[in-house]
Design goal:
The structure holds two protein chains of two kinds.
Chain A: H1 2-17, H2 19-25, H3 27-55, H4 61-101, H5 104-109, H6 115-147, H7 155-180, H8 186-203, H9 215-221, H10 225-245, H11 251-260, E1 266-267, E2 270-271, H12 274-298
Antiparallel strand pairs in A: 1-2
Helix pairs in contact in A: 1-6, 2-4, 3-4, 4-6, 4-7, 4-8, 4-10, 6-7, 7-10, 7-12, 10-12
Chain B: E1 3-14, E2 17-28, E3 32-36, H1 43-50, E4 58-63, E5 66-67, H2 72-78, E6 79-82, H3 94-103, H4 109-122, H5 138-150, E7 156-160, H6 168-185, E8 188-193, H7 196-199, E9 204-209, E10 212-217, H8 219-226, E11 230-235, H9 240-249, E12 254-257, E13 260-264, H10 271-278, E14 282-288, H11 292-306
Parallel strand pairs in B: 3-8, 3-9, 6-7, 7-8
Antiparallel strand pairs in B: 1-2, 1-4, 4-5, 9-10, 11-13, 11-14, 12-13
Classes of the chains: A mainly alpha, B alpha/beta.
């Protein structure tokens, strides 16, 4: 047990001391934030105000805009939390590839420690660091929203977000570990990081809302855990501000909006429940875990 | 002497490559054992098998009376390994690195702290404990690597080319560290190298070529066998013929190189009578001792003829 903790601590330290890799692991988040500030935010805000103006009759436009802005920021926050849980755990798992390349794994294996404990320590450190960074992001975001006059989420919502952060990070860490088993060089892994960093915004329907995607693409995305993770997060983040913004509107409008923005996900014409989404993600995690066990068992140290 | 490592008919085949092909040897307790061979001879593969990284294709190995393959976890507690490449984390301090490495063996924080103090003293790292490993000089890095392998006080230390790529002064430092270990802790040191003059410091040497063990012995016995001393005689210009006659009558094999005669000697002392006799004919002379390079090259040559 102490060997496991010792290794986990080491992995975390190795990651945290490397400032540039910390920065690049957060790059996707920074891009999302930049895009939101520059134009995505405005687009999303005006789509809400248009919707309200169209179906809501006579309303206070200034209040609507303020609500819409807050809604968009919470919506973006939900996206960022998922992006981070993926990109940060990806970078942390990258330590394993570097270790294998610099013959460090062999040194670990000459110590009386089983290979599965070594593997587990990488996944654990990815989970720890991923959770830490998401929680920090959440805290900063809440302070920012409060400072700009928004309403801070209720305690129960925050607790729920923390739970979802943990679930997301766990599942993505396992998936990334599985992916890392197939990658042999740090160069290739940074290639993977580039692809993931680029795609994550699309796959999570963050750059483009679900409604703007072609139906086929949307259908594919609903089969991936990332979108469900984002959707779960958005449900909690946006719940209270959604109700506030859409007050007095027909419920159908809200439902359509939620679907458009990927807050709720429709699979086979049925809006899936949160518990289904959680189960779906958990199943993905379990499958990835089993696959990782099998692959790792057949992978030999001399296969570099 | 009690033997601490026994290797019998060890083989490792990778598909059709015979990396290690039927080698047997023993390492005695407390000795410095030199494992020689050119790059690709199978040294690292052998070390990797002995350090439990992968199982041999065939053969029996016992380390500290424990069977390799059956008691690997116990064996791991008895061995320390310094790999060919530096493997500590460059952004962590030396102390963090050593404690983490030691933490893979020991649970108690106190034991680790104690070992840290001891190990850093032996390898004179006390001054650099707080510095990031990546900022150390090449020699300090190497010593820190050795220190990391000693954090669990192993009985046997495996060093895979500990001095490759270091400058001569640093190499000397690393060597004095290795000698200290062997003398003060009675540790068995198993090392590979391709610096022949370093191998001469070992108690026993094994020479590996293309996966075969081609020689085993003490540096002295191998020198006797493979590296004969030579006597270089520089005659005065007018006495060349007289010297040739002298060498021929004394029945010594010689060859002429430029204006000097190279004479093979059985031992350094057997040069004396020749010098005595030819004193008046000589302008100068030189006794050249056989080196480990000669041992290595001749042993390899012998093997090639044999194959």
């Amino acid at each position: 047990m102490s060997k496991y903790l010792s290794l986990t601590k080491r992995n975390c330290l190795v990651f945290l001391r490397d400032r540039s890799s910390v920065f690049f692991s957060l790059l996707s988040m920074l891009i999302v934030m930049l895009l939101t500030t520059v134009f995505l935010g405005n687009l999303n805000v005006s789509s809400i105000t248009n919707l309200l103006a169209e179906y809501g009759g006579i309303r206070d436009a200034a209040v609507d805009t303020a609500n819409a802005e807050e809604l968009v920021w919470y919506w973006t926050l939900a996206g960022i939390l998922v992006v981070n849980s993926l990109t940060v755990s990806l970078t942390v798992i990258g330590i394993m590839i570097t270790d294998a390349n610099e013959n460090r794994l062999e040194v670990f294996y000459t110590a009386p420690i089983s290979k599965s404990v070594v593997a587990l320590s990488y996944v654990t450190s990815a989970i720890l660091i991923g959770t830490l960074f998401c929680v920090l992001t959440l805290i900063i975001a809440l302070i920012f929203i409060a400072a700009t006059g928004g309403t801070v989420l209720s305690l129960s919502a925050i607790l729920q977000i923390l739970f979802y952060i943990f679930v997301n990070v766990c599942i993505f860490s396992i998936i990334m570990y599985l992916a890392a088993l197939f990658v042999k060089s740090p160069g290739a892994w940074s290639g993977v990081a580039t692809i993931v960093g680029t795609l994550v915004g699309f796959v999570g329907a963050i750059y483009l809302p679900m409604g703007s995607l072609p139906e086929k693409v949307g259908n594919v995305l609903t089969c991936l855990p990332l979108l469900h993770g984002t959707s779960l997060m958005r449900k909690v983040c946006c719940e209270s501000i959604l109700n506030k913004t859409f007050e007095g509107m027909p419920p159908e409008v809200l439902d359509i909006y939620k679907e458009e923005m990927g807050i709720t996900i429709v699979m086979n014409d049925i809006t899936v429940s949160s518990s289904f989404q959680l189960a779906f993600m958990a199943a993905f995690g379990v499958v990835a875990f089993i696959a990782a066990l099998i692959v790792a068992k057949h992978k030999h140290i001399s296969d570099r | 002497m009690e033997s601490i490592i026994q290797v019998k008919h060890l083989k490792k085949y990778f598909k059709d490559v015979k990396a290690v092909d039927d080698i047997s040897f023993t390492v005695e307790k407390g000795e410095l054992f030199g494992f020689l061979g050119i790059n690709g001879a199978g040294k690292t593969t052998t070390i990797q098998m002995l350090t439990t990284l992968f199982p041999p294709t065939e053969g029996e190995v016992s380390i500290c009376n424990l069977k390799l393959g059956k008691a690997n976890t116990q064996i791991k507690h008895h061995i320390g390994v310094v790999a060919q490449n530096n493997s500590l984390d460059k952004r962590l301090t030396v102390q963090e690195n050593l404690l983490l490495r030691g933490g893979l063996y020991h649970h108690s924080r106190n034991v680790l702290k104690e070992n840290l103090g001891r190990v850093s003293e032996i390898l004179s790292l006390t001054d650099v404990l707080k510095r990031p490993y990546g900022k150390l000089s090449g020699g300090q890095k190497r010593r820190a690597e050795i220190a990391a392998a000693l954090m669990h006080t192993p009985d046997i230390l495996f060093l895979d080319e500990p001095t490759t790529g270091l400058d001569p002064a640093t190499r000397k430092q690393v060597w004095s560290a290795i000698h200290n270990l062997q003398k003060e802790l009675q540790m068995t040191v198993f090392l590979t190298t391709h610096y022949m003059e370093e191998a001469a410091k070992a108690n026993h040497i094994a020479i590996l070529n293309k996966g075969h063990l081609i020689e085993y012995g003490t540096p002295f016995s191998l020198k006797e066998k493979y590296a004969k001393d030579t006597l270089r005689l520089i005659p005065k210009e007018e006495t060349q013929n007289a010297l040739t006659t002298l060498l021929q009558t004394a029945n010594l094999s010689y060859r002429k190189k430029e204006n000097s005669y190279i004479v093979a000697m059985d031992s350094t002392l057997s040069a004396l009578p020749v010098l005595e006799q030819g004193k008046s004919l000589l302008h100068g002379f030189e006794v050249i001792q056989g080196t480990m390079d000669d041992v290595f090259l001749n042993a390899m040559k012998g093997d090639m003829n044999y194959v």
